[in-house]
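Lecture 7 notes: from sequence to structure.

We start with a single chain of 303 residues. Read the sequence below before looking at the structure.
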Amino acid sequence: MSDPRITSSIFTRGAVDLSALRGTAPASSRPATPSQTGAPGGPATGGGAAVLDVTEANIQSGVLERSMTTPVVVFFGAAGYPDSDQFAPVLERLAAEGAGQWVLARVDVQENPRIAQMFQIQAIPTVYAVVGGRPIDAFPGVIPEPQLRQWLAAVLKAGGVTVAEPEDPRLDEADDALMSGDLDAAEQAYRKILAESPADAAAEAGLAQVGVARRVAGADPQAALAAAQANPDDVEAQLLAADIEVLSGMAEQAYERLVGLVRRTAGDDRDRARQHLVSLFSIAGPDDPAVASARRALASALF
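Now the structure, written as tokens:
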């Protein structure tokens, strides 16, 4: 998936100075609750302290101070805006599901234009994450729920909250198809995930495995490896051997084989070997030590 966070485009308009909102509430004011104020996206469904409505009267306690101990997600919306009305209940449901790991603070931009101005809101809805008294991330508009869950997980990690990776039934379906050998169904399922979440590493890895499985279909592993050994400059033989090694749990040998092929070839053959190697990296993921080592070796071979 493409990262829904757009820090570079929102925050380059200037830092959000929340200090200007400190102390704006009257000394006798008390924080508002969802039952006391109008909600920008409809009635609160999160319940308890997971969801609160924010005004200038309680932004210091409800957002700034609370974010020192609990990540706060600030939702800027307004009743009557379709995207806002549809997205608010999703956030409220996830806040209730979070059981206090984070707080959803809702701001009605029509009733609180000064708060919206301080956060430089240019679209309804817009969502900000505030951790440690500072905004750390934001995105405008609506994003799919799987993408939103990934964004929330990143916010929680930034706030020091231990996050269990949520199960994704879409991946389970795709993985089941791959394991059963239904490569067409697996490819379709992985591509659907990537259409919704273009940077989903698990889906990218699954799609790469589909490609490998297709390429080795019908091949005799022992004969293919023997052919690659006997013909070190045969590009097709080396690529097939690398695929077989990856599927056999010998990824490091596959990486070494293709790095060596990159060193020995030029032009289109060299580029094919490089691209093939990079596609195999996605199966293991960027944090795999063998991948990191192979990337360094590839860079040395190329330059």
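The first strand starts at residue 51 and ends at 53. Keep this in mind for problem set 3.
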